[in-house]
Amino acid sequence: MTFGMEPYLALILLGFLPSEVWRWVGLAIGRGLDENSEMVLWVRGVATALIAGVVARIVMLPPGALATIPLEIRIGALAFGFLAFLLVRRSAFAGVIGGEAALIGAAWLYAG
Amino acid sequence: MSVFAPSQPSDIASGTAAFIYGLRVAATSVFALVITVTYLGFGALAHDYGLSVGWAMLSTVLLWAGPAQVILLTAYGAGTAMIETAVAVGLSSVRLLPMVVSLLPVIREDKTRLWKLLVTVHFWAVAVWVEATRLAPGVPREHRVSFCNGLGMGLVAAGTIATGVGYYVQSALPVLFGAAAMFVTPLSFLISTARNARILLERSALLLGLLIGGVLAYNQVEYDLLWTGIVGGTIAYLLHRFMRRREVV
């Protein structure tokens, strides 16, 4: 057994609490704010940049199985998905399916 | 003009109707597909790492944050130290903080009870944030919490079922599925945030986040996500203010 503790206890202490605490802090801060305040606008910018940062991080430093696919293919498939989204009436479905198809197709060609 | 202008008007008259509308949005959203694929992959990964199906499904219900769940799972497999694991999970979920802060003022009423909000925000992850930011302003304010609960619970239910299914069909999944399931997270985050980005503030934050985050991650800079969010978000906000003053927005 790893974690040095029982898996369900680890789920609570090392998983749930460190993650959920951000929602609680967000609740404490956001409760007193007005939706049209400058503060909320700034935080909205931070949230958007953070999500973009997660995108960049997973593509540059992928976890697990995604690491077996070369960086060029990961970036190319992301760009292809984004292009599919823009070209097909800004459809999120088109973007996600297009990007996945590009990733799988290119990885298949690369392996074969 | 409010930044949170309604994009889809609605004549919802009760909490139940708002909850059902939330469930319907969950079922037809691109995130129903994204979450199903993500958690099929996560369930299969949990099987690979030798954890139980109950643990895997409970982690989806309790954490409801894909990247953090993958970090927790791989830390388990690698025997990572406890503190190190908790810090890595915490850093990967920092995005939840600004998401809650920016969406909460849109959906709460002055009299909304704290415990109700605690339940509601538990379901907030990128999927709910994106869809609720877009659609909640179109729901009457007194029913927005119910709408978010329907949306959030619908997606969590889909994710939890997919985790269980992924766990059992693990051996039948093609080799590439694991990679494809992990790739759907950045792909859907990028596309859904871009779809929601209507004003300069959001568009520049998205672009700056990709550039700064990419450079920091490439150079393996510590706390890359924190820096990306604060620096990218602040520059985007200042840009927005500057352009607004010049009335070019």
What do you see in this structure?
The complex is a heterodimer of chains A (112) and B (249). Helix content of chain A is 75%, strand content 0%. In chain A, helix 3 (71-87) runs antiparallel to helix 4. Chain A is flat, with a radius of gyration of 19 Å. With 112 residues, chain A is mainly alpha-helical. Chain A starts with 6 loop residues before the first helix and ends with a helix. Chain A contains four helices and no strands. Chain B has 249 residues and is mainly alpha-helical. Chain B has two domains: 15-182, no CATH class; 197-249. Helices cover 75% and strands 0% of the residues of chain B. Chain B has helices at 15-28, 30-48, 53-62, 66-78, 82-92, 96-107, 114-122, 126-135, 144-169, 175-196, 200-218, 224-245. The termini of chain B are close together. The model of chain B is unreliable at 1-9 (pLDDT under 50). The interface between A and B is large, with 78 and 108 residues.
Low-pLDDT segments of chain B:
1-9
Beginning-to-end CA distance, first to last residue of chain B: 12 Å
Largest interface: A-B, 78 and 108 residues
Return the average pLDDT of chain B rounded to an integer: 92
Domain count of chain B: 2
Low-confidence stretches of chain A: none
Helix content of chain B: over 70%
Q: List how many beta strands of chain A DSSP finds.
A: 0
Report the mean per-residue pLDDT of chain A as an integer: 93
- Describe the global form of chain B: globular
Structural class from helices and strands of chain B?
A: mainly alpha
State which percent range the strand residues of chain B make up.
under 5%
Strands of chain B, total number: 0
Terminus-to-terminus distance of chain A: 38 Å
Largest beta-sheet characterization of chain A = none
